Amino acid sequence: MTSLTRRLLWTGVGAAALAAVVAGGAIAQAPAVKIGLLATLEGPFAAGGQDGMRGAELAVKERGGVVAGRKIEIIKASSDAKPDVAVNATRKLVEQDKVDIMVGPLSGSEGIAVKDYSKTQPGITFINGSSGAQATTLQDPSPNFFRFNTEGAQWMVGLGDYAYKTKNYKKMALIAEDYAFPYSQVQGFMTEYCKAGGHVTHKAWVPLGSKDYSSVIAKLPRDVDALLVVLGGADAVNFLTQYEQAGGNKPMVGGSITVDQTVLNFKGKRRESLLGTPSAGPMADSYDGADWKKFVASYKESFKDGFPSPSLFAYVYYINMKATLDGLDAVKGDLSGGQAKYREALKNLKLKTPTGEITLDENRQAIGTTFVTEVAKAADGGFYNKVVKVVPGVNQRLGMSKAEFEKVGLGSRGVPSCP
Amino acid sequence: MSLFWRWFWGLVVGVPAAAFVVWGLADNPKLFLTTGMNGLTLAALYFLVASGFTLVFGLMRNVNLAHGSLYLLGAYVGYVVGDRTGSWLMAVAAGFASAALFGLVLQVAVFRFMHGEDLRQTLVTIGLSIMMADILLWIFGGEIYQFDPPRAIYGRTLLPIVEVYPTYRLVLLAMSAAIGVLLWWFLNRTRVGMMIRAGVDDRAMLSAAGVNVQFVFAITFAIGAGLAGFAGVVGGTALSIAPGEDTRYQLASLVVVIVGGMGSVVGAAIGAILIGVAEQFGLAYAPTYSVVFTFVIMALVLAFRPQGILGRRA
Amino acid sequence: MSAADWRKAMNAGAGRYAWAGGAAGRRAAARPAAQPSSRGEEAIAGGAAAWARWIARRVRARHLLVLLAVLVYPWVATPFFTFQIGAQALALGLIALSLTFLAGYGGMVSLAQMTVAGIAGYMYAIFATSGTDISLRWPWGLAVVLALVIATICATLIGWFSVRTEGIYTIMITLAIGVAFYYLAQQNYSLFNGFQGFQSVMTPAVAGVELRAPIPFYYLALFWSLAGYFFVSYLLRAPFGVALQGIRDNPRRMSALGFNVTAHRVAAYAVAGVLAAIGGILMVWYNGLVSPGSVGTGWLINILIIAVLGGMRHPIGAFVGAIVFVLLQNFAVDLVGRERFNLLIGGVFLVIVLFSPDGVLGWWTQARQYLRTQLNRGPAAAPTQRRGQ
Lengths: 419, 314, 389
Description:
The complex is a heterotrimer. By secondary structure, chain A is of the alpha/beta class. Helix content of chain A is 39%, strand content 21%. In chain A, helix 4 links the parallel strand 4 (101-103) and strand 5. Chain C folds into two domains: 1-47, no CATH class; 76-376, ABC transporter involved in vitamin B12 uptake, BtuC (Orthogonal Bundle). Chain C is 68% helix and 1% strand. Chain C contains 15 helices and two strands. Chain C is mainly α. Chain C has a two-stranded antiparallel ribbon. Chain B binds chain C through residues 61, 63, 65, 110, 117-120, 122-124, 126-131, 133-135, 138, 247, 251, 254-255, 257-258, 262, 288-289, 291-292, 295-296, 298-299, 302-303, 306-307, 314, and chain C through 26, 103, 109, 161, 164-169, 171-173, 175-177, 179-180, 183-184, 187-188, 297, 301, 304-305, 308, 339-340, 342-343, 345-347, 349-350, 353-354, 357.
């Protein structure tokens, strides 16, 4: 190499180094905020977990990847709906990858396990993903675990009244899966329904995983006005098929995940029998609020490989991540002092979501809006969920006082009961 | 077992069973008969899946723990074919063919070289089942898929007492019976079937008698796998396909074969009937523990007749 | 070659893999037992001096090195690595050790080892303190003892069911039993609290030391793992273990020799049950919870994967497999994306089974073999080919 080229080379290197230092210095004003994101990406909930991650990413994208002058760094982890796996993944994110804030998990029992873990990490803030078990914030809540989404029981508030008074279903039979989430959904429904005077004369708790409802259907009583069906998407499809084939013709009232998009328009046939089925949940595809429409459009535009409309998981992860970022904004990115200021900000946050405002109660559980919907036919022949009632300010005690609720207890096979 | 003990056990099992039947018929005949038919039709499906499993196990001593994955593979491939061509029958054929082909490749390319190493073969099937389950989840996602069979077999039939019954389940029952007869004819009236039966009895002698044992093994594995794929489409039409079905039918095959006896197709039929009926009656009359019911039956069979009802002590 | 060279070759190389009187070369003897039982009995009979000689003969530099490494590990590793990687690997390794003992040396592949561990975990959660109302809140020592006893009884029962038929059948039966327990735990709310399981299970504090803290828990797991490992190693050279291996290789001959084959097998299940139960209690303390998911098909098969991954020829294989498994589980997300973890672990497992049936240990011994041939001069130590390769 000639001396000229060598000098040129060294000048180039020096310039590059200088530029890097300057540029790095400019960017490294404030360190990036690391947020851990946990969802179930394995097993049967995989599709839901993927959509959940999309929802969270949408919230980050809305802020351009920066909050309060700090870059947002998302570190993802996956679980398979088992609580021990979720805790391991969380522990890795918190202790190994050193995240500042943790968002997740997806399913109910995972949520309880992560809440327990959060008590051992008082310096980190944990925000829920989409787990909806009542016990997470009602039993032994953790001071640094925040849930900005309403849970399974809250999602059914308003439906009991609607079923009894508007649809005139005086007697109903229940078919639901035998685990915590349906218990909470049934409690949310029956608390109102029984108070209004309704009777649930038959409860069929189907073991998790069984797809053959023929015997359950055979046992359904003849003298009920409607069926309360709290089954997940795939099982709901099976149930409907088998019910029709067995000659059943009673109208249905669906749980929050029973008459969602996958069931209404799945790769198969449309079901005329579903028209008019009421249901309830934290969101409705067809809600005509301006913010909601904007949210749906933004989802569709950002994720070409996503669902035709954001699913429950996408929405719930979105609001939790939005809360995380809004809180950071409120404290101007200051996570010092064991994140005490940040937690204070979260506690007092009035979160603006596409479906209304959400505040937290004393257990850091969301108080939010529930939509009562009914299945209707759109102009193009497809089915969708039309909003018929909006219930704001739903709290976790379902309108009862603390003492009253504690007497009744959390939902279970026998609670509540009005045969 | 001496005559006395046979009568003793016959009474111990038979009397409560008879009492239950009488009570059920008197209490709610519609429910009882519907449940009975549900049990039989579920048994038909279990038989389809388990017969392939027991064939492979009986002849090649290969506990194929990827059998459930073959079920799912056949179901998904059948779905794709059915979707493209619009014909359910094509889907069924595709399900059978794809699983049979995959099984054939497995036998010829992998298991052939592990002859005699039973444990190793089983471990390979376990690894394969894990991988296949994940690959299928990757390709098809976590959603459920439903088939679109012809209207003629998908409606309802009117029957006495039971009133209305899904036609498809009756069709399923008929199909299983037909397959069962076909299998019986194949095993008992053809040369290859004779070789398979001989191999189940004594593998070494079969080889010594000059038969191309690898050819027989390949055919058997292909048929066993094909049956699983066929059951995948047929069962998927009744109960939809989703991830996790592979484990469910794998376990069902295991229990049916343990109860019915390994290597025996008739045993698989008997085991399937026992398990299917028990499961449905459990679901109808004691739903909470219905699932454990089937395993209790399995435990009882193991305790008193470890080789299964029609099995042979090796 | 000289007699000394011959003896060295037999003991150091080929001797380990030729089982005097055994059948399949592939499932040859445990590595350290070049001449089993006689030395051990000699040691037991000869008192302290004989023990010292026996240890000096057997213990190599690498053994001491490994022991030192595991003892010092928590002081050099981060709390995360100590707790989530180290302690978890040890606890899982202990459960896998029970399977290695049963399968590698007893010839019975039982997929119900995690079930036994889960039963121990559940019993502990029921008797001790947890966040669920069902827990009886008895003293933790009592709870541990009760859990171990109940789990061992269950293991014996499982063994009794499973020994009645041939070897390969055992996999099916134990898998079915394991799944039955999973469904029972999931459906029963009065005892097992169903789908939710037991959360917030209390880990005890001994003499003011909180056992759930990373370093104390690591040493606890290490203590029990070492205890299990040495116990199994000892048992394999004792008459019981030798008889068990004989039964694995040729049950009819052993029966003809007067050994009660069924009793030995059931006893082996019981011993494996104790090991798995200890591992199960460690796991429930590690997780702080126990749920049906902890005893589902996924975990039943994972234990088998761990045992096979490490190699079933030697008890240490279980721990080696556990370390590999835990590392993959935690860091696969950085390799292939956590969603495809199952594909990765299945693929690794398949590769091991197809190309190295003795797992990582098999590769390790092959590598050592290779190095030895390269380093050794002359024809003195030409090792014989391992049979069944």
